[in-house]
Amino acid sequence: MEKENIICFGEMLWDMLPTGKMPGGAPMNVAIHLKNFGYITSIISRVGTDDLGNELMDFVKEKGLNTNFIQHGQTHLTGVVKVNMDDKNNVSYKIVKPVAWDYILLENDALEAVKKSDCFVFGSLSARSEQTFDTLKKLLSIAKFKVLDINLRTPYYDKETIEFLLNNTDLLKLNHLEIDEISQWFFKPGTVEENLRLLSEIFKIKTICVTLGEEGALLLHENKIYRSAGYEVDVVDTIGSGDSFLASFISNILKNTPVDIALNEACAMGALVATYHGASPKISKQEIQNLMNKSLSKSNV
């Protein structure tokens, strides 16, 4: 049975890898994983009327996403990202601009859909262009539950923009490098735990996840700190691991799963995705549970 209605907003694109191209973009990756968990998911984005755009549309249709809110523009090409995988644990990206998703327009049917949605997921990268940022602002003003995925990609961010987004967020996800940088903008940084509490206090965000790579993740929820040590796996690449982490966490939060369990499952999900090529392999709940059980049995030896 399908569950809550979730809308993801922002970039959908092609990751240009040394081995070839793969579909990507954080909002699209999150949407695909949430669909795999049984949620009704849609994406608001924009592609070109080129071959890459047509291929991307075929891909998301195959994944079962609602494509009614994906716009098609003739002026700009479908987004691409050049991916450097010299260090598989720290993948770097060169994001081409301008492309189609920089020009997402405000359309009435999308506006109504966001109003009725149970969860609205967006990323900081979608605020890099004036047109898409304007559309995002209007959607944030009517969304019920807002989830921000911070992606600080040089040179596409600044303090003022991030501050606006943080002020319009109910659940925040970012990595340890990003929380370090953002903390320096607003207060004298301390430990990650101290930074979490201050960010939560300043921006009134009651739930913040910080991913720590192979060391797991930290979570602040209603002023209490939780920690997951993470899971040991053989890494193929880390593309999409953070997106899958977020999708798993959102899925459990919407089901009112205890937050410590939600955090552990999210870390297991992120670790499993890192054992595959690409950002959106289908991971079952059973695979997640098996990895968690394996880790638990090791720790009890």
How do the strands of the widest beta sheet line up side by side? 5-4-1-8-9-10-11-12-13
Principal-axis shape equals globular
User: How far is the N terminus from the C terminus?
Assistant: 39 Å
Helix content: 25-40%
State the CATH superfamily name: Ribokinase
Strand content: 15-25%
- Biggest β-sheet strands, sense, barrel: 9 strands, mixed
Instruction: Please tally the β strands and state the result.
Output: 13
Order of secondary-structure elements: EEEHEHEEEHEHEHEHHEEEHHH
Which parts are unreliable, with pLDDT below 50 for 5 consecutive residues or more?
none
Number of domains: 1
Question: What is the average of the pLDDT values?
Answer: 93
**How many helix segments?**
10
Supply the CATH class: Alpha Beta
Under CATH, the topology is which? UDP-N-acetylmuramoyl-L-alanine:D-glutamate ligase
